[in-house]
Specification:
By secondary structure, the protein is α+β, with helices and mostly antiparallel strands. Helix content is about 35%, strand content about 20%. The protein has an eight-stranded mixed sheet. The protein binds 4'-deoxy-4'-aminopyridoxal-5'-phosphate (PMP).
Amino acid sequence: MKHKKLNVELPEVIPNLRGVYNFPLPFQGDEYNVRLHSWVDGRMVGEVNPRTNELFFSWGETCGELSHAFHGFDHAAAHRFDEWNPIETLHSKRYLKYITDEKKSNVANHFWNLFEQEALNEIPTLRRSVNHSDAHEYNLLVQKGSNPSKVTGVIDFGDAIAAPTICELAIACAYTGMFAPDPILAMCETIKGYHSKFPVEDKEIKLLYYLIGARLMISVSHAALKYYEDPKNEYHQISAGPAWELLFKLKEISPDFALFSFRAACGKSPHPNADQVAKWMKSNPEKIGDPVNLKAKKTCKLDLSVGSISLGNNSNFETVPKFSKKISAILEEHQCDLGIGGYGEVRPFYTTDAYKVEGYNGPQWRTMHLATDFWTVAGTEVLAMADGTVHAIRNNDNPCDYGPTVILKHKADSLNFFSLYGHLSLETMEHLQVGQRVKKGEIIAWIGHEEVNGGWPPHLHFQIMLDLLGNDGDFPGVAFVHERDVWMSICPTLPSLEMYKSNCLNYGGDNIIATRQKVLGKSLSVSYKKPLHMVRGYGIHLYDDTGRRYIDTVNNVAHVGHEHPRIVRAAQRQFVLLNTNTRYLHKNIIEYAEKLLAHCPPEMEVVYFVNSGSEANELALRMAKTYAAQEDMIALEVGYHGNTGACIDISSYKFDGKGGSGAPEFTSICRMPNTYRGEYKNAETAGPLYAEDVKKAIQRLKKKGRNVAGFIAESILSCGGQVMLPSGYLADCYSYVRAEGGLCIADEVQVGFGRVGSHFWAFELQDVVPDIITCGKPIGNGHPMAAVITTRKVAEVFANGMEYFNTFGGNPVSCAIGHEVLSVVEDEKLQENAKEIGNYFIKGLQVLKDKYLILGDVRGIGLFLGFELVKDRKTLDPAAEQATYLVNRMRDLGILMSTDGPLHNVIKIKPPMCIKKEHVDEILKRLDQVFAEDFMRISQ
Ligand code: PMP
């Protein structure tokens, strides 16, 4: 049944044939009072995985609709005592004796006391209505199969009672908070949903935290009683574990912080005094001063945000001396001695493992800075920002903490607020006493040096707080970006420091998308349903504009790691000196060519430097056609070799895909030697059988009076879906082509440079030596460069008199970079790492394959891996939507992956080569999590 005010299905009570709704029914010797309900179709919300923010919102929306529908309704039977009513929580105190664990009974008393002190007297002032009163996950339904984030049905009105209306929301929040790594976030979504259907009043929001605690207390105390009565009955304990867990978590969250968050969820100013204090500050400028004498110094705005060019490479803040050096260098560059900034700034240096917190979407970091920092020399005087009293002095001496810290208490008319001064000198501790009065501008402290200030370059951390949230002598200086409205409301900045506020979040992804659509070609694509705005890279990680750190498993270009300091330095060193072309003599190109050739089989003797993989293949095609004096190329199905005209003509991935018009006249395409999906499945014997296709292609050409110029193939098929070539395949293909005078090109653009672990080049896995190797992507670690490597004989024939000139190819900067990439691969033993970590990774994937039917095939070698998703392991029906879902979910969880293959159901893995076991563990853990989600489940 659908009620006119509700978008969800409800059960309808059906009378018996005599028109009676409740009637006795004998059953197994007893008599029961029964009533018949209509069926409400769906799945329990409790079975939904994952529980998304959309689900929490819809959960709240449904409760809001119920409150709306119940509005004005009354029934005598609703006016009864029910001990599950949150406002009756103190009745459950009599079960306290069954809570035998001391920690638990402490938490129980805490929440009952809070309820008694903060809520009890206010209850009679609240709006009342009949409530469903039990909106937990087994009384709400979603549709089977379709969008599991939308609640579509509500059952069990057996607990409906007249109560304060807000209890409906409190009960829902008690259950959305369970299992949620970040319960306040889940509750806020529920509140938003509820508020959108039935606006919540200020005094209701004020009591919400206590009512949530009250309901949870009823749940756990009843469970304790039931456990005492019947320890074997699991049903009664179903919510007890998660309810306790939530109570422990909630105890750590200040009720005020919860209140401010809940207010924000209802679209209200998070801190109720925020506007008044801001007004006071604006209208009393004479009562407020800067915490450092700005007139005595030359000042500049300092940008330490995640995307800050002046902050630069992560190696600049890896250690305190390096960080201090960097700060000094920035100040020197700006010719000033005091750098100011940081309020609202999203910073990259809080994203190490030490700061990691498990959040709603995997690991999270508090990246947004809530204070204004003053970077200058140790010993600089710190001044009280306004008249006040010393509220706290404490040495927060954990690494990366504030060190000596002072908190002052001030008054804005009748309202209190506080100011915090962190990273001070030890002398400060002696200088002040708690309770002491201070005047605006009075020296209260001195900036400390790195040995005492928590381990930072000398600076003052200056923060205003409208509420201490239960802290004493300490206060969070950074916050999650998703909580920024709440934190910035609690921690405003001074009007005089407004100009130093960071605008790093202002140029968000949405602006970029809109401008891209205007100024860039439509055929560019963007990864992920929620596109990412990346602003920094380092090692295996990329960082978005919110400072979120992602493990990159996609980027084989950043071969030795994103923005490797050695590569960055090599580029900078040469760039400041000279960058010209190959018409002048330069040692870089010689040294680099020799180093590159040293990694090749001895037959390879000559190098041509170009600027992209496409250009490398373009040149290789010209060489083959010149050498064989033929036009025809043989390439593989779903192969991709570049974006130039000639490369597109040999790339079936393009001409057989969207917008393509099939193979051109001079291209012959052979089947992928795919032993998972193809005709020949035995990897031992399939190689020569698939190679027959090349033989047949040549025969077809000869029938037309033509012959083969060359054969091009990747040594592991990337766009084809990370397909490993069966043994003997390339040897046979090469011999058929060479027999006709054609050349064999190994496209190593994706797979070269040690990625396969056991060898430097992937063609070595096939025991062959090509005539031409083309390389690109990893060669310059992100710098646009590429190379063609060939035999002396091919080079001689190609040099037919026509000059080969390439403006950029082989320039001194590119060669310095390429040289350093090879040195880093050697020095950091990255090929060995690819072998070791690759083996570890593939074993982990195989364990997942045994666990999840959808994982049809795991393949690859070294750090060039892939897995294929299928709906059915026998028919191999491709699970493309699931692959897309997985990639997007993994992105949400902080891991970048991508799909490929002709059926779009292969996940390819080709991370920077510096990946470590701990990263693989994190990837496998998240894959395990996502494979267990509803959308990934297939039944066989
Ligand atoms: N060959 C292969 C196998 C590739 O994957 C690519 C790029 N994806 C290219 C050639 C072309 O390289 P680029 O994009 O640098 O021109």
